[in-house]
Design a protein that fits this description.
2 copies of one chain form a homodimer. Chain A has 252 residues and is α/β, with parallel strands linked by helices. Chain A is built from 8 helices and 12 strands.
Chain lengths: 252, 252
């Protein structure tokens, strides 16, 4: 079942990092985009492969109306204002609300194409934005792509962390190293009275990074200005302290 | 590809409702459970089939440690304190953090078993809690189970609604009626200064229920007390105005 996908000769990638959260809706794609943006600001060449074929958000985050272009049998990625190169199933659709109601083999084949047929060029980092769950797609990406590291995204909620724990166990099963955990929606600060709300902190049980002895890379607030900036196509203007500090402390 | 699954003779179900959101993390499972709880309080017999085989949460929501029991080749569902009968892949696991790293055909076969081999008994309502996306599982459930209605769950965020729109289009493709939309995380009220925050309201674009002319069944707050109650196994004590009003207005 395990089959290794090889990059084409026009793609040289120094490090491939899968962004994973077995739970949906924790902000995985947003975190992926913010990491890419911060690395770009630091002069790194970054690509994003949106492996969430069924529920793609990466091209929406970078607010592009571009369509994918082919070249000599290869696929050219789309570039953001900052020069982040990305590919997403959304770029293939005529109408943005067209559903992709594909059976699993088709989905897996498109991911293979996004990896081997895209001319990624020289990249310092390729992020793979995985769909939720521990099913076909995450398994195929971890087994068949040359993934060097995994970043897990979670929220503080016990129920969410119980599901993210399944992703951690899956990474262990395929012997892929987890760089650490980014906790999203860690707190919310009321802009009127400054009260800090731990919206999703549900118990004093040890967090998954404690339970599995993994580095905590960042804790990010739920900032109500963010969804607005993101939905209006301004993700490349966002600076988040937690993301910046993590990228600065990261030894490239 | 379309194949119809038949209930066994010991299951009589008046109405089967799929709870769907092509986007993960919008609170779909919580909404499913809260609808079931409110209907139970109104004397209805309710079951929940957790079709999110890879990321199951229903048994976690009802805080059960029970394991599934077989009987004469059939499967008995687990019962909550209020008498809600449910089945979930989580009930089959030895360790709660065991990942289910199954390929798609196995997942689909388990859903079939959960529908045809479970002794549901007499039910007024069977809710099918779908996984995120518009892939294999939602397609199979909508095509092969006798689904009478769909309830879509969303948040106010444009980006989320763009993905939920794909689910609406998918329902149209298979000619299944959508009962309406439940909007979750509509607002948050600071308990110190009472400011109401529209956390995920990102634009004044028409909402999907306006765009697709669907009934808005409820708008639910992000209530920071809720995750705590849920994670400590007290979901059957929760009363939410929006849920109660919707159930009361619903002609059974």
């Amino acid at each position: 079942m395990k089959k290794s996908f090889q990059l084409n000769a026009k793609s040289q990638i120094k490090q491939t990092i899968a962004i994973m959260s077995s739970k949906g809706g924790v902000g995985k794609s947003t975190v992926t985009a913010l990491l890419a943006v911060e690395l770009s600001r630091n002069g790194k060449k970054v690509g994003i492969l949106d492996a969430d074929i069924i529920g793609p958000t990466i091209s929406r985050l970078f607010a592009t109306q571009a369509k994918v272009v082919g070249q000599d049998g290869f696929i050219l990625p789309v570039s953001s204002a900052l020069g982040i190169r990305f590919i997403s199933s959304q770029l293939l659709l005529d109408q943005s609300d067209d559903p992709i109601v594909w059976r699993s083999p088709l989905v897996l084949d498109l991911i293979r194409q996004f990896y081997v047929d895209v001319i990624w060029g020289d990249l310092d980092y390729l992020f793979i934005d995985l769909p939720p769950g521990t099913g076909d797609v995450p398994m195929t990406v971890l087994e068949s792509l040359n993934v060097n590291n995994i970043i897990m995204v979670t929220t503080p909620q016990d129920l969410v962390q119980d599901i993210v724990a399944k992703g951690i166990q899956m990474a262990k099963m395929v012997n892929k190293p987890i760089l650490g955990i980014i906790e999203n929606y860690s707190y919310f600060i009321c802009d009127q009275c400054q009260k800090q709300h731990a919206l999703f902190h549900t118990s004093d049980r040890p967090s998954i990074w404690q339970k599995y002895q993994l580095p905590l890379l960042a804790q990010l607030p739920l900032d109500s200005a963010l969804p607005k900036l993101i939905d209006s196509g301004k993700i490349e203007t966002i600076e988040m302290d937690g993301i910046r500090q993590f990228i600065q402390s990261w030894r490239f």
